[in-house]
Amino acid sequence: MSDDTQSEARADNDRCVLTSWHEWEVEDGVRRIILCVQTGLELRSGYPGFDQTKLDGLLADATDMMRTSASPIDALRIVPSHGGY
Questions:
Q1: Sign of the CA dihedral 14, 18, 21, 24?
Q2: Domains plus CATH for the chain?
Q3: I need a labelling partner for 52 at 20 to 30 A (CA). Which of 23, 42, 60, 78 fits?
Q4: Which pLDDT value is given to residue 18?
Q5: What is the rounded CA–CA span in Å between residue 25 and residue 29?
Q6: What residues form DSSP beta bridges with 33?
Q7: Residue ranges of the alpha helices (H) in 1-85?
Q8: Distance of CA 57 to the CA centre of its chain
């Protein structure tokens, strides 16, 4: 499930979120819903291009996505795009 429309609607249109989707984890019969957010941001502190402010903004946007989801979401997973590594 892609949520690109939210990033397009942002005033700064920085498009930190490339795509997003839900995954399930099942352990001992208990299902957890994980919101996965793919980004082109550098996620490794200390590496060239890492920007804590942009990462904080991404986490705030992802948290908003979790709150507005029709399904309760149990966890967030930030996934780097392949181009960033």
A1: negative
A2: 4-84 (3.30.300)
A3: 23
A4: 82
A5: 10
A6: 24
A7: 4-9, 52-68
A8: 10
Backbone phi and psi for residue 27, each to the nearest 5 degrees, phi listed first = -140, 125
Structure-token pair, residue 16: 């930190």
* pTM for the predicted model, two decimal places: 0.72
Burial of 42 (0-12, 13-18, 19+ CB in 10 A): middle
Q: What is the pLDDT along the chain (85 residues), one digit of tens a residue?
A: 444 444 444 444 456 778 999 999 999 999 999 999 999 999 999 999 999 999 999 999 999 989 998 889 999 999 998 654 4
Separation between Cα atoms, residue 16 and residue 6, nearest integer Å: 11
Question: What is the model's pLDDT at position 40?
Answer: 93
Structure tokens given for 3: 């949520």
